[in-house]
Design goal:
With 471 residues, this protein is mainly alpha-helical. The chain is 49% helix and 5% strand. The strands form three sheets. A four-stranded parallel beta sheet has the order 2-1-5-6. Strands 3-4 form a two-stranded parallel ribbon.
């Protein structure tokens, strides 16, 4: 990721939202995000950037359909099927059903069966196609689906597939579905049922707008808004059409410079792991780095391996075909490396309100170096000495507790020196103790300076973490 010294004050994603809000300042605007949490976060970020967002509210495609379908469902006295309840309906559908060779696995088939039925219903899969795809071992699946659907009808329950159908029917039946502007994320995946609902809204002349436009040469995944609703317009501002995430669809000359030795990192914003993978590949392509020289480190195999493999298969190979070669290898998780442990414990120390015992443990484990912050000709203090000095102390929680504790300890040693000098005793050992406390103060202050506060930006917090690891 990148930390550019001249990073723009507003990402392109937020710039799109700002442009929409400026063009429609009083209109009701519904942000159909991948999740409500993502939508709330973006609206909050927009407010922090001092951009007016009157009338902008977060939602999802499913939640919007739910609100649209409520009148039709109320007339039919139907209820929503609670989230996670599909396996229980599948269990009832499988009762007394002949499962053939899979009979010994009956207790384990409820959830997979529910997933298959949910997918078949969401994607409007034809019954004949389903039987062909499943084969003889699961020839009972169409009967299980029929029972599943009968149970929903019997108990007046509506699952997601039926919900989208009810919502689309309500849109076609209602002369007016509101004047809200619907903002759809390019990265949102649309099942066939959701896609038909959105198309029903479009047919009813509901105003739709896409946020983001994947940049070439990476084609959008086929089930996303970007691929299925390519005819829906995207916002424009003074930099032209822009895409999801920072610079995702901007012209090449409008994107930030590739990482260099002077600015080895740069940040990009992406909504969803798929967009994150495309941003990483796009960064390498923009920099003109040879494919053999590119190494991408990911935090966890799931979901990044599958996403990287899929994205590389869609890239043009240069000879008219598609698909670029890649080698995947398992590495050590960051938290098992010494550097990863140091960073993890440093962040945990901050999260635990600068707990003294946690810091003592870090010093004794060799996760904190002290020589990087002390003067070369000054008093030396190794991590184990620092841990010993701290272990005997008690402080109150928070940053300020360390300063107060060190001040008390320093005064106590200074009084000992004064008393010994008054009696003509040796003070060399006490002076050495005082020098060690001064060195400890330097180490503690350096650590606290690198600890992000509540107002620290992500970019600055990352810089501070890198500085901590470099010492």
């Amino acid at each position: 990721m990148a930390v550019a010294d001249s990073a723009p004050p507003l990402s392109f994603l937020l710039a799109q939202l700002r442009a929409v809000c400026a063009q429609h300042p009083t209109r009701d605007k519904v942000l159909l995000a991948p999740s409500l949490q993502v939508g709330h976060s973006l609206i909050t970020a927009l407010a922090r950037a001092d951009c007016p967002s009157i009338g902008l509210r977060p939602s999802t495609v499913l939640e919007h359909a739910r609100q649209t379908a409520l009148p039709a469902m109320a007339d039919r006295r139907e209820r929503f099927l609670a989230g996670g309840a599909e396996p229980f309906v599948a269990r009832a559908a499988l009762h007394d059903l002949d499962l053939g060779p899979l009979e010994p696995l009956r207790p384990h088939l409820e959830r997979p069966t529910a997933e298959v039925i949910r997918t078949v219903r969401q994607e409007h899969v034809d019954g004949a196609a389903l039987r062909t795809a499943l084969g003889d071992r699961t020839a009972w699946m169409p009967e299980a689906q029929a029972r599943y659907e009968a149970l929903l009808t019997q108990h007046d329950l509506v699952d997601d597939s039926a919900l989208f159908r009810r919502a689309a029917e309500q849109v076609h039946a209602s002369p007016s579905v509101g004047d809200a502007l619907l903002l759809l994320f390019d990265e949102v995946e649309l099942t066939e049922a959701a896609y038909r609902y959105v198309r029903a809204l479009q047919d009813a002349e509901v105003a739709l707008m896409r946020l983001g436009h994947p940049a070439e040469p990476l084609a959008p995944p086929p089930r996303t808004v970007a691929a299925r609703l390519a005819d829906v317009p995207t916002p424009h501002h003074d930099a032209g059409a822009v895409g999801l995430g920072a610079y995702a669809g901007a012209p090449r000359e409008a994107r930030p410079a590739a990482p260099t030795e002077q600015a080895p990192f740069r940040f990009v914003e992406a909504v969803g792991t798929d967009a994150e993978v495309r941003a990483a590949l796009r960064s390498a392509l923009d920099a003109g780095v040879p494919l053999d020289a590119i190494e991408i480190a990911y935090t966890t195999p799931d979901p990044y391996v599958d996403l990287l493999h899929s994205a590389l298969r869609r890239l043009p190979a240069g000879d008219g075909s598609h698909g670029l070669p890649a080698t995947f290898g398992a590495g050590r998780p960051p938290h098992l490396t010494h550097t990863g442990k140091a960073l993890l414990h440093f962040l945990q120390w901050i999260e635990e309100d600068f707990d003294l015992l946690h810091l003592v443990g870090m010093l004794r484990s060799g996760l904190v170096r002290t020589d990087g912050v002390l003067e070369e000709d000054g008093e030396r203090l190794d991590p184990y000495e620092a841990a010993t000095l701290l272990a005997a102390r008690r402080i109150r929680p928070g940053r300020a507790g360390y300063a107060a504790m060190l001040q008390r300890a320093t005064r106590a040693v200074q009084r000992d020196i004064e008393e010994r000098e008054a009696h003509g005793a040796e003070v060399e050992a006490d002076q050495e103790r005082l020098a060690k406390l001064h060195a400890l103060r330097t180490v503690i202050e350096a650590l606290l300076d690198l600890a992000p506060s509540q107002t620290t930006s992500v970019r600055e917090g990352t810089r501070q973490a890198i500085t901590f690891l470099g010492r």
